[in-house]
Specification:
alpha+beta; Aspartate Aminotransferase, domain 2; Aspartate Aminotransferase, domain 1; 4-stranded antiparallel sheet; 9 helices; 7 strands; elongated
């Protein structure tokens, strides 16, 4: 309609997905390449979210509109700093090889992880918990569904392996707050009267730290 009326069309893509996530069970999430093929004159999207880079806003499109934006005085006020630009460049370079990006980009690696890899990972974290556990908490290994993110694919739920913690001496709210306030915060969620640790979003080299932190934070 915009082209019929000679009005520029802006496509606010938002998430910044650079790969087709439907191959990994994440449906109805448009990506940057498809947005470009749509014929929009200007496309805007995030450098973080599904792209997995630093927080930034990216605008691409036809030269005449991009040049007009560059001349606007607000461009100077909103431009990103050099550190953000360097991080964004490093992130985008990973996408030159999509297979490499899936392995090296933490966001993509976590989103596309399969249950075949997550179940053994959950078993490892559960074993770490059992090794340090005392009467201050109980632990169970189970499965649950988590969200990709509110700002991108908000309705999508993906299955994962989770370790469920039930504290004996402190409330779940207190435990969750203590974990968030650690020098290296641990972000968990509360569901059905248990604190859930989703191994999809925890690196294996942090397992011992997570287990020791749970033990510490469950004390009276």
């Amino acid at each position: 309609l915009g082209h019929e009326r000679n009005i520029p069309v802006i496509y606010d893509l938002g998430s910044g997905a650079m790969v087709r996530l439907e191959d990994y069970g994440i449906l109805d999430e448009p990506n940057v390449l498809d947005a470009m093929k749509s014929g929009a004159d200007v496309i805007s999207f995030s450098g973080d979210k599904l792209m997995g880079g630093p927080q930034a806003g990216i605008i691409i499109g036809k030269r005449e509109y991009i040049e007009a934006m560059k001349k606007n005085p607000l461009t100077r006020a909103f431009r990103i700093d050099k550190l953000t630009l360097a991080a964004l460049e490093a992130t985008l370079r990973e996408y030159l090889d999509p297979a490499e990006a899936l392995q090296n980009n933490p966001t993509l690696r976590m989103i596309t992880a399969t249950m075949e890899t997550l179940v053994p990972k959950g078993e490892k974290l559960f074993a770490c918990m059992e090794k340090v556990r005392d009467d201050s908490f109980s632990v169970a290994l189970t499965e649950d569904f988590g969200q990709v993110g509110g700002g991108s694919v908000p309705t999508q739920m993906i299955r994962s392996s989770v370790v469920a913690i039930t504290p004996a001496y402190v409330s779940l709210d207190v435990l969750e707050k203590r974990l968030r306030e650690l020098s290296l915060p641990i972000i968990a969620r509360i569901s059905k009267d248990r604190l859930l640790l989703d191994v999809r979003t925890i690196e294996e080299h942090h397992f011992d730290y997570v287990a020791e932190s749970i033990l510490k934070c469950c004390q009276k």
